[in-house]
Write a structure and sequence with these properties.
Blueprint: E1 2-7, E2 12-15, E3 24-33, E4 35-40, E5 47-50, E6 54-58, E7 63-66, E8 74-75, H1 76-79, E9 88-91, E10 97-106, H2 111-117, E11 121-124, H3 127-145
Parallel strand pairs: 1-9, 2-8
Antiparallel strand pairs: 1-10, 2-7, 3-6, 3-10, 4-5, 4-7, 6-11
Length: about 150
C-alpha cells in the first residue's frame, strides 16, 4: 500500500496496530515538503523529519506523525476507512506539509528474522542517504500524481 499525506496547520495522526493485527511490516515514509515530528512507541525522544528526510519503521509498534509533539492525535482510521491505494489524504486543506509513504506486510515465517536484524526506526537524513532514495521518491510522487 502506498499513498500521500498533505496537511496544513496543527495536526497529529496516530497509526497503531489493532489487537488482531499481528502481521510484521516495514513502513517507509519520506517528507517531500515541510517538516513534522515522528513519535514512535518505545522510543525515548520524538524525531524531527525535514524536507528530504525519510524514515523506515519495522515491526508492529504504533507511531504518530505531527506538526508538533504536543498536538493531540487523531487516529488514522477515523480519517480514512480504506487504504489510500495511491491516493492523497488532505488534512486541514493541505499545502504546508507533504509526505509519501507506504508499507509492506509479511506473513512468511522468515519475516521475523529479517525484522529483528533491522533497527526499529531508521532515519535517513544525510546527503548521501537522500541521494540514494531520491529516485524512488520521485517515482512514488509521480505515481501519486498520475
Amino acid at each position: 500500500m502506498a499513498g500521500g499525506f498533505d496537511a496544513r496547520g496543527d495536526w497529529s495522526i496516530a497509526f497503531g496496530r489493532g489487537a488482531n493485527d499481528t502481521a510484521e511490516s516495514i513502513k517507509c515514509y519520506a517528507v517531500r515538503s515541510g517538516s513534522c515530528w515522528l513519535i514512535a512507541d518505545g522510543e525515548d525522544e520524538p524525531l524531527r523529519l525535514a524536507t528530504g528526510d525519510a524514515v523506515i519503521l519495522t515491526g508492529t509498534r504504533g507511531f504518530r506523525i505531527a506538526s508538533h509533539p504536543n498536538v493531540p492525535a487523531v487516529d488514522f482510521t477515523e480519517l480514512l476507512a480504506t487504504p489510500l491505494d495511491g491516493s492523497i489524504l488532505s488534512y486541514n486543506g493541505g499545502g504546508e506539509f507533504f509526505a509519501v509513504g507506504g508499507y509492506f506486510s509479511y506473513s512468511d515465517r522468515h519475516a521475523s528474522i529479517l525484522l529483528r536484524l533491522l533497527p526499529r526506526v531508521l532515519h535517513l537524513s544525510n546527503a548521501s542517504e537522500r541521494t540514494s532514495i531520491r529516485h524512488s521518491l520521485e517515482l512514488m510522487s509521480d505515481e501519486l500524481r498520475s
